[in-house]
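FAQ

Q: What does a record look like?
A: Structure on top, sequence underneath. For example:
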């Protein structure tokens, strides 16, 4: 397609007329957005069709990335970018008197994820399409994504995220490709035709309807698919049996109970609470997804015995790990394979990524609940477990070991163990994380299956997180070193020779200032708050969790505040501290931390005696679209988790790519960032892994020692509960208790001094602009290796064994 500006203008006007019978002056921004979205989807549709045709015709191996979460964000801007028509569109709309940026702002974020895990899935989809790997997403089309956050009187209030209220221009409903998923009932084993078969009785059948969204590759004709499933009753609106018996209420109840499966994303990424609805969600999309893969596969007339040569299924954390049993069920019961053949195919097909070692987040399901909801699946897991336990026993002849490694034990099914046993690859998401999995959390399994374990350090798509979100920086890079880096992000290193060049430094500085001014305007327009673009922008944006230590950041700020109060002449560069964080609705301590941040903000922001040297801003409703605004204007990136707790982090990489200086512990991928950029270009503080692990193991940490011996800490902590923050003393009593009486699980007090020193180093470094800019440029230059294109190359080569496919148009 040879799109010109004139053609786009006329297509757009026609679309607006066909959809809404409106001319431009009569149309709202919403309608303009919807018309433009529909048009862009149309521009991609031929490539989408051709991609599918060619994948099928050429029998290429395809990857299916199974994930409960895809935190996509907005699609208009990234689709225009990947189609290569951003400036064309901008110019065309400008001619029509429309500002593209304003139209982009109308789009609701697709917030179908909690945080890092869901956003990683979205970056991976973009990378697979952009480097030409036949890879698709499979997940749930939640009616409501992650809640919208409002701050009322300093507290978080959750509001349902009705993201579909204006429709969704990007998806295509494929009702003709619906799949039946069965729950509950009884399994009746029968011996027919010389083999055992399993018939189901009294089950509940649910219809899974797929909605497909095109995943457009960067200027390469590839358009992959994100398939999200929505639950409906089979007889559409009513349970006919109940209805005909006159039980109208029961019929309606059934309809709502089925629809509830795909109604809402669980907003808690901190602990499992064994809710049956969540298990239903998991089985629902996994079963529908695998059934639809098999259906498509069979159309290609290849034998099921070669399934694993053409299909890879990747499970994003344990949430879809039921895939192991479901693929076995379909191969055994539907395809009539022997156990051994089905097992070989299943394990060769499936690969698993672990994203957390936090104990509370490791999924396990009570046997009774599981068995009732999924009787046949349970039988299969029992058999997998039995065979596995036998193998372990044969190898070690050690019953304790068998017990420790069993998939089913103490009344629970351990989903991580099922995922490990049933897959051919297990990976962690950063070097340190993988080492901890191998040597500690999963050491038994590493010993048993040493070849399954591997590391794949996370990445981020540089298209969304640099080209789209920071066009000024991206253009300067291209002006300086050409545009090779766009296809090969490792080439960002070519700007390194300019890191000491004063002219280049000035340009980078000006861009950062410009971004900061734009954001300051946004903040003024939306929140009525004035912030100073000449202050250091210090940013911590991520989910609120004790291990991420937003409290350490607040303590650092309070310490600085008290120093300024004691010494009003203290010379520091003014700083604006930004926080953005959603707390899981049931995570009390996290919610109290939000209140604490807002309380400290109110106190300090209103204290004129410190001459505006500190400002604190809590950014409401942190989301992908807000991240795209704040990250390009950050000077300092806060990555301050307790070492060993953050599996990788991906925000850390986004900030680095946009030239922020990172203040970090040697946790997660911060370690690899430090290795890449060098010690001088990152500010490291805090305990290292051995120290943390030894304190944990030997229980030799006593937070009160630090409270008693460090007068700064004593002052800060006393002031939490003595009314000096202008709230009742009881308000933060639980945070106080957590830190002192309950011994500060994540070592905030222990790392405090080191953190304050690191912040002082930051202040000093920022004063020396040439050094700071040289550091900033080095960070950008070394960030290319963290493009998810590199990560996906490694998944493809080491795990999926997929080949790139050129789509011919
Ligand atoms: C866990 C749970 C547990 C219970 C129910 C709901 C739910 C939903 C999500 C999660 C995910 C927790 C794991 C997670 O998000 N890990 C993050 O993964 C990122 C991508 O690999 C990584 O960068 C972060 O460090 C890691 O915390």
């Amino acid at each position: 397609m040879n799109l010109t500006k004139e053609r786009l203008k006329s297509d757009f006007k026609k679309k607006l007329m066909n959809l809404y019978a409106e001319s431009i002056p009569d149309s709202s921004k919403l309608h303009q957005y919807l018309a433009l979205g529909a048009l862009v989807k149309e521009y991609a549709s031929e490539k989408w069709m051709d991609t599918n045709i060619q994948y099928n015709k050429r029998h290429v191996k395809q990857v299916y990335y199974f994930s409960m979460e895809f935190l996509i964000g907005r699609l208009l801007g990234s689709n225009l970018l990947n189609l290569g028509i951003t400036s064309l569109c901008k110019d065309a709309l400008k001619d029509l008197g429309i500002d593209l940026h304003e139209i982009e702002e109308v789009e609701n974020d697709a917030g179908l994820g909690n945080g890092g895990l869901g956003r990683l899935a979205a970056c991976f989809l973009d990378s697979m399409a952009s480097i030409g790997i036949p890879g698709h997403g499979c997940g749930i089309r939640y009616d409501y994504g992650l809640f919208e956050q409002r701050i009322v009187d300093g507290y978080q209030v959750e509001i349902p995220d009705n993201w579909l209220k204006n429709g969704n221009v990007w998806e295509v409903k494929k009702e003709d490709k619906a799949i039946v998923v069965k729950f509950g009932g009884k399994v009746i084993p029968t011996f027919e035709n010389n083999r055992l078969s399993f018939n189901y009785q009294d089950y509940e059948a649910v219809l899974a309807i797929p909605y497909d969204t095109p995943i457009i590759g960067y200027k390469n004709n590839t358009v992959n698919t994100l398939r999200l499933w929505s639950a409906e009753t089979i007889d559409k609106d009513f349970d006919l049996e109940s209805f005909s018996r006159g039980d109208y209420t029961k019929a309606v109840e059934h309809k709502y109970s089925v629809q509830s499966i795909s109604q809402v994303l669980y907003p808690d990424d901190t602990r499992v609470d064994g809710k049956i609805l969540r298990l239903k969600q998991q089985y629902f999309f996994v079963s529908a997804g695998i059934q639809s893969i098999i259906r498509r596969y069979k159309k290609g007339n290849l034998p099921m015995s070669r399934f694993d040569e053409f299909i890879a299924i990747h499970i994003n954390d344990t949430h879809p790990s039921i895939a192991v049993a479901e693929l076995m069920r379909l191969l055994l019961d539907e395809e009539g394979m022997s156990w051994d053949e089905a097992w070989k195919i299943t394990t060769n097909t499936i690969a698993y990524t672990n994203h957390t070692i936090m104990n509370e987040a490791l999924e396990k399901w009570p046997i009774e609940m599981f068995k009732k909801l999924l009787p046949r699946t349970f039988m299969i897991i029992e058999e997998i477990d039995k065979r596995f336990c036998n193998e372990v026993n044969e190898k070690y002849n050690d019953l304790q070991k068998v017990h420790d490694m069993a998939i089913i034990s103490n009344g629970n099914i351990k989903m991580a163990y099922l995922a490990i046993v049933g897959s051919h690859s297990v990976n962690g998401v950063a070097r340190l994380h993988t080492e901890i999995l191998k040597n500690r959390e999963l050491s038994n399994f590493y010993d048993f299956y040493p070849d399954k374990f591997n590391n794949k350090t996370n990445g981020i798509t540089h298209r969304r997180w640099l080209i789209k979100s920071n066009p000024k920086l991206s253009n300067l890079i291209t002006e300086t070193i050409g545009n090779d880096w766009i296809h090969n992000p490792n080439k960002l290193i070519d700007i390194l020779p300019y890191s000491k060049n004063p002219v280049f430094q000035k340009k980078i500085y000006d861009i950062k200032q410009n971004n900061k001014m734009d954001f300051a305007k946004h903040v003024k327009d939306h929140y009525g708050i004035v912030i100073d673009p000449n202050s250091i922008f210090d940013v911590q944006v991520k989910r609120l969790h004790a291990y991420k230590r937003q409290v350490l950041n607040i303590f650092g700020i309070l310490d600085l505040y008290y120093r300024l109060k004691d010494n009003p002449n203290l010379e520091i560069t003014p700083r604006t501290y930004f926080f953005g964080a959603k707390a899981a609705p049931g995570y009390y301590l996290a919610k109290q931390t939000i209140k604490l941040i807002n309380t400290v903000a109110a106190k300090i922001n209103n204290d004129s005696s410190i001459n505006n040297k500190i400002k604190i801003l809590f950014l409401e409703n942190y989301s992908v679209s807000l991240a795209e605004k704040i990250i390009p204007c950050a000077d300092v990136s806060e990555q301050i988790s307790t070492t060993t707790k953050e599996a990788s982090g991906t925000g850390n990489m986004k900030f680095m790519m946009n030239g922020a200086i990172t203040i970090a512990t040697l946790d997660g991928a911060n370690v690899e960032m430090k290795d890449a950029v060098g010690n001088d270009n990152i500010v490291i503080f805090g305990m290292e892994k051995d120290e943390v692990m030894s304190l944990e193991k030997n229980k030799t940490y006593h937070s009160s020692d630090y409270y008693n011996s460090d007068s700064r800490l004593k002052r800060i902590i006393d002031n939490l509960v003595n009314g000096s923050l202008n709230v009742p003393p009881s308000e933060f009593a639980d945070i106080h208790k957590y830190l002192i009486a309950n011994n500060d699980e994540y070592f905030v007090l222990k790392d405090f001094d080191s953190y304050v020193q690191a912040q002082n180093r930051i202040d000093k470094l920022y004063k020396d602009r040439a050094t700071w800019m040289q550091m900033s440029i080095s960070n950008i230059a070394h960030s290319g290796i963290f493009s998810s294109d590199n990560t996906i190359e490694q998944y493809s080569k080491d795990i999926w064994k997929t080949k790139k496919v050129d789509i011919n148009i």
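Q: Is there anything notable about this one?
A: The chain has a mean pLDDT of 96.
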